[in-house]
Predict the structure.
Amino acid sequence: MKIDPAIIFAGLMTLFVLYIICRIFIKPIKWLLRLILNCAVGCAAMLLINHIAAPIGINFAINPLTAMISGILGAPGMVMTLVLQSIL
């Protein structure tokens, strides 16, 4: 039984194209997962601050936008959210 070299070449090219496609789509998925994790951490931090600072009148309006801002920017994002909330 003889295997045609064209079939071997086509198989190798298929594996190479599959590898390239996987490399292209892995990076955005990692970025999206990191963004979701940062938003969850930002939301948890705002909930903690809401719970601790409620007696003195500091509270956050928690929604997806403020969670994303505080998750990506960290503490400066939370301060910015508080300042914008007091202005508006």
